[in-house]
Design a protein that fits this description.
Chain lengths: 209, 281
């Protein structure tokens, strides 16, 4: 099923780039979310702002099954509810201290986030496997009006999942034909760098003219 | 600049180190207005159109104001106390509200997480009860009886100690910290944070110290403070929103934040809102 039929789901990262007990900033068209994987491997996406002092939670750290803010160590569980305030170890944090949470799904090596409650799961992208994610200084609309590009790099079938991240920038999550060998992956990855340079050069020339 | 920021116009702000003015002067900004700090006797500060601004040279720094200060610069009596070493730390530029820079300086609960193994360390994260007041006569915010366990409280400290702190906010973008002096128990080291508001979302931070420490080389003292402030900068440049929210509800304080709560209340009372966000967005 084509990606554009799944606009509820936004691809934000490749599974390989989010090991257990880490957090990353997940870029979406409506802003950044804090995407983290617990020590036991569970995925969570939270609003990227600690309700205490507004610090970005994507700068935080994961311990066990909780994400902690780097500023004062306030920790949040998978629902976004604050679990612990280190300055007051004996206090049960009030229910009001909560970061918004978003649905996540992981399929075929791609992590997806939904802003609402989608009816269907994200696409499986059969026939492809994840290669790498790549930021580009290019408007997403220039790359693809649908969020999906089918192309060839180094003669190999590719599927690019394009996400607008604001300020004329985008992220491409690059999938490669499932049958590709290790050498194919290296060649396609190099070709992807060339594609990025071409796209950014064209965008610059357009802006200048 | 909006009229609501007017009360802050009449305050004194640090704009240079008096001892380090280059011959051509220091071209800088104050609350969005370009100014030049010129060396000489006396030191001058000139705004656009050639207008001379009021100048005070104190605590190693050149202070000025775009408005008409109704009071002299706040007093730090310890600055003249014999035996203290006065340390000019220099400047750290931070892309944040000048008010957020001060609020961070008033906060101890972040020590174990931001200044790990220096000013704090897990599991010593608890912030005990302390006293906070707005002293009406002086019109200053004070926090006293603040205590915190520190692995290396100062350059001259050799091991972990429970450090006593007092905080004082005598002006909207200046704060004075008194802390246990490792070399002279019973006396207080003085560490200040003088903040120059370049714009509402950009500031130059000028730390300054008056210490009892005859041993540590000046370079080491400066490096220690700069390391601390660079660690703070990684936080300050990533808070959302960049302006300090003064309306309750946008950010949730706890008991450990009572100094910050009093500081925000005091800012609001005086309409010191340059660098503040009044309506939650």
């Amino acid at each position: 099923m084509p990606v554009e039929l799944h606009r509820d789901w936004i691809p934000v990262a490749l599974s390989a780039d989010l090991p257990a007990a880490t957090v990353v900033p997940a870029h979406t068209p409506s802003g950044i979310l804090a995407l983290w994987r617990s020590e036991s491997g569970k995925l969570t996406a939270l609003a990227d702002r600690c309700p205490h002092r507004g610090m970005r939670l994507s700068y935080g750290f994961v311990r066990g099954e909780a994400l902690s803010c780097i500023y004062h160590g306030w920790s949040y569980g998978r629902t976004g509810q604050c679990q612990r305030i280190p300055a007051h170890p004996d206090l049960t944090p009030p229910a009001a201290i909560k970061a918004a949470s978003y649905a996540t799904e992981e399929r075929n090596g791609v992590i997806w986030i939904a802003q609402n409650e989608p009816q269907e799961p994200p696409p499986t992208l059969d026939g492809f496997k994840p290669l790498r994610s790549m930021p580009l200084a290019v408007d997403a609309d220039r790359l693809s009006p649908t969020g999906e590009v089918r192309t060839e790099f180094a003669g190999i079938d590719m599927l690019l999942l394009i996400v607008a991240t604001g300020n004329g920038e985008a992220v491409a999550h690059i999938m490669i034909a499932a049958s590709a060998s290790k050498d194919d992956c290296v060649a396609a990855s190099r070709a992807a760098e060339g594609w990025r340079r071409d796209c950014e050069r064209l965008a610059l020339e357009d802006r200048a003219s | 600049m909006t009229t609501s920021s007017q009360p802050m116009i009449d305050q004194w702000y640090p704009v240079a180190l008096a001892s380090q003015l280059p011959p051509e002067g220091r071209a800088t900004q104050l609350m969005g207005a370009p100014i030049v700090v010129l060396p000489g006797e006396p030191i001058r500060v000139v705004a656009g159109g050639g207008r001379d601004l009021p100048v005070t040279v104190r605590y190693g720094h050149v202070w000025t104001s775009l408005g008409e200060p109704s009071k002299e610069l706040f007093d730090i009596p310890e600055a003249d106390q014999p035996g203290r070493r006065l340390v000019e730390v220099g400047v750290v530029r931070v892309r944040c509200s000048p008010l957020r820079a001060v609020e961070n300086f008033l906060d101890i609960a972040h020590f174990p997480f931001v200044h790990t193994d220096i000013l704090g360390a897990e599991p010593h994260t608890e912030v005990g009860k302390y006293d906070v007041e707005i002293r009406e006569e002086e019109d200053e915010v004070w926090a006293t009886k603040v205590q915190f366990y520190q692995p290396q409280a100062a350059k001259s400290a050799t091991g972990g100690i429970t450090t006593d702190y007092m905080y004082r906010v005598p002006a909207p973008t200046s704060s004075v910290l008194y802390k246990t002096c490792p070399a002279r128990p019973g006396d207080w080291d003085v560490i200040t944070l003088f903040v120059q508001p370049l714009t509402e979302e950009l500031c130059d931070v000028w730390p300054w110290m008056a210490l009892f420490d005859d041993e540590t080389p000046t370079t080491d003292l400066i490096h220690f403070q700069q390391m601390i402030f660079l660690q703070d900068r990684s936080i300050l440049e990533n808070q959302i929103p960049r302006l300090l929210p003064l309306d309750p509800g946008r950010e949730i304080p706890t008991r450990a934040d009572l100094t910050s709560v009093a500081y925000r209340r005091w800012l609001k009372r005086h309409l010191f809102t340059y660098g503040a966000q009044l309506v939650a967005q």
